[in-house]
Specification:
27% helix, 5 helices, five-stranded antiparallel β-sheet, 27% strand, 242 residues, single chain
Amino acid sequence: MDHIDWARLKTGEVNLGTSIMAVQFDGGVVIGADSRTTTGSYIANRVTDKLTHVHDRIYCCRSGSAADTQAVADIVHYGLQMYSQTAGEAPSVAHAASLFQKLCYENKDALSAGIIVAGWDKQVGPSVYNIPLGGGLFRQPWAIGGSGSTYVYGYCDATYREGWGRDETINFVKNTLALAMSRDGSSGGVIRMCVITEDKVERLFIPGDELPKFWEGHEVLGEPTQKKQGVDTGIVPMAVEA
């Protein structure tokens, strides 16, 4: 075989489709994903859990080939368990991300795996790492991935604010994933989220019939207000030559 056809799945392979996301806030991280798994145009599973536990306070979000990402996550989970036993302490999120990055980079010609690693550790607190196709490693305050992410980069850039608390971050993740799921045919189903802090890991679930649809009207933006007459907007009309 002279070249690799990235557009073609391996025989029998299942593609996650996917919209995945992780956002850091003061005290923890919120991760989230849709639940649609596709095989071509066929929806193989509509309630997939793409948020995978790899250690007590470290999770990953998986996109790409379901088989590839499950295998990589299993290997990292085993490696982190071995580390915690031999070192006598919990691994850092950076250490977990570096294991994912090593596997994805050294096998980049054989794998289709885009992974976001997020969690809390005693060294730096909350952190988010993005590992896109090809095996790069980037620490970011927020990260998105999967086929649905291309539809919401502008929304994330315009909406995200530093200093958010838990509730604002959950709302941001929920709205972003709902928007991606509405635009991307390979994303859909329900939203699964996970809030990871020093004290606990909290799972959240939003059914498909309760997804926000703020882009369609008043749900988030509020009821349209009556236009006030005679209000000075400060805008000076430009003179147009006759």
